[in-house]
TrEMBL record:
Superkingdom per UniProt: Eukaryota
Annotated ranges, domain AMP-dependent synthetase/ligase: 122-539
Any one GO molecular-function label of the UniProt entry: long-chain fatty acid-CoA ligase activity
Matches recorded under InterPro entries: AMP-bd_C_sf (IPR045851), AMP-binding_CS (IPR020845), AMP-dep_synth/lig_dom (IPR000873), ANL_N_sf (IPR042099)
Lineage: Eukaryota, Viridiplantae, Streptophyta, Embryophyta, Tracheophyta
PROSITE patterns, alphabetized: AMP_BINDING
Organism field: Fagus sylvatica (Beechnut)
Chain ranges passing through the membrane: 16-39
One term under GO cellular component: membrane
Keywords: Membrane, Transmembrane, Transmembrane helix
Name by which UniProt lists this protein: AMP-dependent synthetase/ligase domain-containing protein
Reactions mediated catalytically: a long-chain fatty acid + ATP + CoA = a long-chain fatty acyl-CoA + AMP + diphosphate
One Pfam family linked to the record: AMP-binding
Amino acid sequence: MANLGAGDYLSLWKGYGTYGIVGAVVVGILIPILLSAVFMGKKSGKQRGVPAQVSGEAGYAIRNARVNELIEVPWKGATTMAALFEQSCKKHSQYRFLGTRKRISKELITASDGRKFEKLHMGDYEWETYGEIFDRACNFASGLVRLGHNLDSRVAIFAETRAEWFIALQGCFQQSLTVVTIYASLGEDALIHSLNETQVSTLICDSKQLKKLAAISSGLKSIQNVIYFEDDGTENDTGFSGSTSNWTISSFSEVEKLGKKSPVNPSLPSKNDIAVVMYTSGSTGLPKGVMISHGNIVATAAAVMTVVPNLRRSDVYLAYLPLAHVFEMAAESVMLAAGCSMGYGTASTLTDTSNKVKKGTKGDASVLKPTIMTAVPAILDRIRDGVVKKVEEKGGLVKHLFNIAYKRRLSAIEGSWLGAWGLERMLWDVLVFKRIRTSIGGQIRFMLCGGAPLSGDSQRFINICMGAPIGQGYGLTETFAGGAFSEWDDITVGRVGPPLPCCYIKLVSWEEGGYKTTDKPMPRGEIVVGGFSVTAGYFKNQEKTNEVYKVDEKGMRWFYTGDIGQFHPDGCLEIIDRKKDIVKLQHGEYISLGKVEAALLSCNYVDNIMVYADPFHNYCVALVVPSHQVLEKWAQQASINYRDFSELCDKAETVSEVQQSLSKVAKTAKLDKFETPAKIKLLPEAWTPESGLVTAAFKIKREQLKAKFKDELHKLYG
């Protein structure tokens, strides 16, 4: 994803002559000045969340201002995902539902350094209707039974996101089967742990995972059946040897055909039955399995449907994030309930310039033209970086025009009368931003962002350049993504909105960290979520479940998140800290590692950063993954000679340059001296989910990073 959209954004500027650019600048300045003499406007002060009286531990509680009672279902009768799926498929039976691009060709390209890269030529989307998908899910469910799957055991899905993943999930629900979800990027130890702990008897995977399974088969105790997704509908060589002959290995299409030939009546679940055991990649140790009920999923889906503006059957959703992640599963559940179309793509084929897209062919977004997308902040940051890079390369009048347009649109979007009236927006959209938006299809009307905090700069950049509001969500696997969600007309940044209407949120004072619900001007404390989205706990881990889940005297279930938040006067939540990221230094000062990292990420040199604090010292240090592009540009301007990027990162003058820049950013962010890293180590290799150093949502895994780079951290304190 490092080059997401990086070359796609400014073919953009072709067609603008010098006179056209100068004329646009003049018009863009004069029209707002003339109209400002006529109109005046005000920012609205909408109340989005209101105080609520709840039982349980004392705290400051808020509910969504639009509901008096929590929402539990999207409509009467849809109490489980099996019921919701069947009812939605019948209601929209003739309309298109799931789309997949056909692969036309694949070739390997050899780079100048000898590395080989796969390039794909993909065709148009081929669609199946709601009715057809329902039939396929039922056929697969029947096929599982006929294959001999033990209905008292679990099914696991270990694969990249695709239509068959969704069909398999819904098929399992038709037979009341609990599905175990595992990130495709998890390492072998985590995979073995997850499958053995849940005693999975049937494992569904994609063909590229088969060799990984063969390598660890001796460590898998309960697997009896393996079902694999074919590539482009062709049979695959499974690569299994005789050592795994005790496994029944079938293709997905074979199981569908078996079920179609010999159907089995459904065995439908209840709302409290566990639909999914979702293993989180987590930031510490082995992954934990969160038990998610059918009621949890439909409650979050019902709540999100009320806050996405005008969600309707004509909307098109681009699905490419991991379905094993709660964010994507929740989003696809919402699209199912609303009757939308879902086209499947991948992170590596998302835009025309994504790394697996053959030159001259189209990426998923260009072909699908989605109206709704989800994204994690890391992806939005890279979209922003791609646009900025191209603007800088163009320079001159193009750069000047872009900067004027951006500043004027920023002024409008932050609440001036022009933002509401819309003339200036239309002007700059036509002159500048329309062509940028073609990189993700040109039709986006709403984006959902979650998984990690989104910076205010990135949020504004997407608002302006992509012309769409961003609903920033806050939730966890333990609340099936249902927590808070910012509303489309909220122009503020840095907040995650009021509680979703399926839950309450309360703040509980954390005395040790200095956060209290009596704090002024806003109450602060640990964020606790209660309501229909709160899950049943951790699989086979009652001790940890009891630690963070509580049930009050009225039977409401609460989850203690460990995050620290504050409520604004309009009832919107802001995440400001995390309990486990706080370290007490030698002289008694408390340092919030997450807060410092969030501030320092705005440094141009920083692609990623982990701040580390040893309690036996009075200062912190940092591991920094620098931006290749920015650092190499500096080296060129500073006439620094180096053989490769690793050597550049080791040079004393490079470390000094980055550290000075970090200090300036820290000063601007008003960090204390002890919060500013006294020493840093530059690391040339990016942290990816595949490396196990960040989660699927690109949040750093602190314990894994500390373990991998323990020698470097020791030297920084040496």
